[in-house]
Specification:
Oligomer: single chain
Helix content: 40-55%
CATH topology of the largest domain: TIM Barrel
Radius of gyration: 27 Å
Largest sheet: 8 strands, mixed, barrel
Strand content: 15-25%
CATH superfamily of the largest domain: EAL domain
Structural class: alpha/beta
Strand order of the largest sheet: 6-7-9-10-11-12-13-14
Number of helices: 18
Bound molecules: ligand C2E, magnesium ion
Number of strands: 14
Distance between the termini: 73 Å
Length: about 450
């Protein structure tokens, strides 16, 4: 199958493929049939031995398939599915039946001994490994995942078996393994993820479960607190406290990301307005997800929220990660220019951990660069970290920005940073994240010092 063109031609090619290939998608039995057939096997009183193996083959990740549809059009995506079906069909034994479950997703049923099922999966994985749907103008970047779930070990009914095999295919796609059996450990993680994603929507609609804490940032030359980073906390009604590292990346993969950024902006801006009214002047940094920076409505939304809360743009910074800049540099760069023109400061978060080169620093109108805690947390004792941080401080200063070091965990690292000209520090050695009242006390303490 290697080199099969899925882009060349249109409906003619599709019609020809349908006629020539018994595994043409249009002719394959569908998902309902697959579920029905599994049910028949499970209930078959004649079946004496052998396992029922439900196999799911993903010829591309959902993102890859969407990208294909978006860039090359729905015809190309259909042709991709045709080519995938033909490639998989060519690897199956003659008695095996292929099913089309959904876009780029296929199913196979096998009833056999565990050994023979394993051999079958190895052959299938090996057979389609070299499959590359390359078109005349553009290669379709896709990856294949194969998952398997066996009755009765991995599920007692058809729905459970299919879900378990899909979870296996996802693991195979994510891990790069040729095929993956259903794994309860992986499944527990994805169940938890599904649970969190289901519950974050209602949490974002209210004020009871989510709140912000503020981690102080101090001017290292004077020790004075200049502001704080706003960090999201979620007290889940049954699961307890959920760290942002567990839910923010999940939400960022969905359209709920806009609701999350809105929630954070609204909550932080109303707090900033309260502090300003009370005579405090902290500069508050707000994390904004990469998906939002790329959204064409983002700058207008930000301007509207600033106005609604009567917050001056210079009272806040937004923190964006390098990955946001890399995804769509031109669009993101344009939006960040507009954010700067509003008067809002821009901090590059987690600096040094992305896969980007240094060149983007030239294009992004950053006002602050935050060196990631990866280089900061062992700073007092790690000579390589010292070299990296020292040259980053020079580079960032030469570009006219201020340097923030985050994740400072001990007094020696703090002293080292102060000595080497780092402008601003943040980390547990200065203060952990605080609720608003404790932050006010902290500010009062550093102003008096
Ligand atoms: P981040 O933006 O890089 O935030 C810094 C993280 O480092 C925070 O973790 C902070 O509590 C932690 N930290 C700071 N100093 C120390 C230290 O000395 N020791 C240790 N062990 N940790 C330290 P947190 O609050 O768990 O947040 C993790 C990440 O979640 C954040 O990384 C950010 O990427 C994301 N996040 C948090 N709140 C929001 C939000 O409102 N919106 C978005 N989009 N992302 C958020
Ligand atoms: Mg941050
Ligand atoms: Mg960070």
């Amino acid at each position: 199958m290697a080199g099969t063109s899925v882009m060349a031609g249109g409906s003619n090619l599709r019609a020809r493929q349908a006629a020539e290939h018994p595994h043409s998608v249009g002719r394959l039995p569908d998902r309902a049939r697959f579920l029905g057939d599994i049910d028949v096997f499970i209930g078959d009183p004649q079946r004496v031995d052998g396992q029922i193996a439900v196999v799911v083959i993903d010829a591309a990740t959902p993102n890859q398939h969407d990208e294909l549809t978006r860039t090359l059009g729905p015809d190309a995506a259909d042709l991709f599915d045709e080519a995938a079906a033909a490639a998989i069909g060519a690897c199956l034994p003659t008695n095996a039946r292929l099913y089309s479950l959904s876009a780029a997703r296929f199913g196979v049923l096998q009833v056999d001994t565990a050994d023979r099922i394993e051999t079958f999966l190895n052959k299938l994985a090996y057979g389609i490994r070299g499959w590359e749907p390359i078109g005349p103008t553009m290669p379709a970047a896709t990856s294949v995942g194969i998952g398997v779930a066996c009755y009765p070990h991995h599920g007692g009914d058809v729905a459970e078996l299919l879900q378990a095999a899909i979870a296996g295919a996802r693991s195979s796609l994510e891990s790069g393994k040729p095929w993956c059996p259903y794994s309860p450990v992986v499944d527990r993680a994805s169940h938890r993820a599904a649970h969190l994603l289901r519950d974050i929507g209602p949490a974002l609609a209210g004020q009871e479960q989510l709140h912000l804490v503020y981690q102080p940032k101090t001017d290292l030359s004077t020790g004075r607190c200049i502001g704080a980073e706003a960090l999201l906390r979620w007290d889940h009604p049954t699961l307890g406290s959920i760290p942002p590292g567990d839910f923010v990346p999940l939400v960022e993969r969905t359209t709920l990301v806009h609701a999350m950024t809105n929630w954070t902006l609204q909550s932080a801006l109303s707090q900033v307005a309260r502090w300003r009214a009370a005579g405090l002047d902290p500069l508050i940094s707000i994390n904004v997800s990469m998906r939002d920076v790329g959204d064409d409505r983002f700058v207008a939304r930000l301007a509207e929220l600033l106005e609604r809360h009567a917050v001056q743009p210079g009272w806040i910074n937004i923190e964006v990660t390098e990955s946001a800049l890399m995804k769509d540099p031109v669009r993101v760069g344009r939006h960040l220019d507009e954010v700067r023109r509003l008067g809002v400061g821009i901090e590059i978060d987690d600096y040094g951990t992305g896969q980007s080169g240094l060149s983007y620093l030239k294009y992004i109108p950053a006002t602050f660069v935050k060196i990631d805690q990866l280089f900061v947390s062992q700073l007092a004792s790690d000579r390589n970290d010292q070299i990296i941080v020292r040259s980053t401080i020079d580079l960032v200063h030469d570009l006219g920005c201020q340097v923030v070091a985050e994740g400072i965990r001990d007094g020696d690292s703090l002293a080292w940073l102060r000595e080497h000209g780092c402008d601003i520090g943040q980390g547990n050695a200065i203060s952990p994240p605080l609720d608003p009242a404790s932050f006010e006390q902290f500010v009062a303490g550093t102003s008096a010092a």
